[in-house]
Amino acid sequence: MTELPKTPAGLGEIAAQYDALLCDVWGVVHNGKAAFAAATNALTQFRRSGGIVVMLTNAPRPSTEIPAQFAALGVPDECWDGIVTSGDATKAMLSQSAPGPAFKLGPSKDDRLYDGTGMAFAELEEAKLISCTGFYDDNRETPGDYDDLLKRAAALNLPMICANPDKVVHFGDRLIYCAGALAENYAALGGKVVYTGKPHDAIYQLCYERLAALRGQPIDKSRILAIGDGLPTDILGAASQSLDCLFVTGGIHGAYFSGGVYAEEVGQLLQDHQTRARYAISSLCW
Q1: Max CA pair span of the chain
Q2: Burial environment of residue 218 by CB neighbours within 10 A (0 to 12, 13 to 18, 19 or more)
Q3: What is the CATH number of the domain that holds 188?
Q4: pLDDT digits (tens, 9 = 90+) for 175-211
Q5: pLDDT beyond 60 at 9
Q6: Strand partners, 171
Q7: How many domains does the chain fold into?
Q8: Cα 85 from chain centroid?
Q9: pTM check: above 0.90
């Protein structure tokens, strides 16, 4: 079995080992409807002790749009220093692919992502690529609703840029599908998919640049702690970057735990996903 993770009672027990946090947002800091007070307090306490907090999210929107969302959900400004999104990495990639044209797969709320990219848009048969930010209506649609569209796209051999590798996130007390679910199905059809968010390298390079700008110098990876609840994204991404990670187990994988020996259950889950985490905690707190 994978080496069992340590299980601190809170972030405060391990905070002195790190200068910076890369903290996931959905499922760790809020659930799409309200902030988790214990989590935002933990991040605030870390900052008060001299640490830097960068919120790292697979949201397919520019980071400039996230503070307004935080304010609406009750995530205080005091708990973070910077924000890096999958949308930031996607925007850079779209700019390189402009003028396209692209077929836009996703809701209109994500359209700000395209500002300044120079990308033009077209119907599927006239497009040169697909920009996938999510479902047109994630409140009611499932991946199966897109089977015909994805088959047509695969037949046209169109590459897809996936702006959010997450397959699901918590929204209140339920799970909703994200762009990663469509990208997974497209890849299964033989379609080429390029991912820009966690667990892939591009978004972490943006994080290191952001941390260096905030600190005034680069921060060694051994002094960075990643925090997240998604095994295929947050945890795998941290492992691939050789970062220590705090796995928040009460997020999207919460249903896995049966009340057995906690560290052993976490270790088995990590082994099942062929990844690792140095620490595990049910929910983020200080």
Answers
A1: 56
A2: exposed
A3: 3.40.50.1000
A4: 889 999 999 999 999 999 999 999 999 999 999 999 9
A5: yes
A6: 174
A7: 2
A8: 8
A9: no
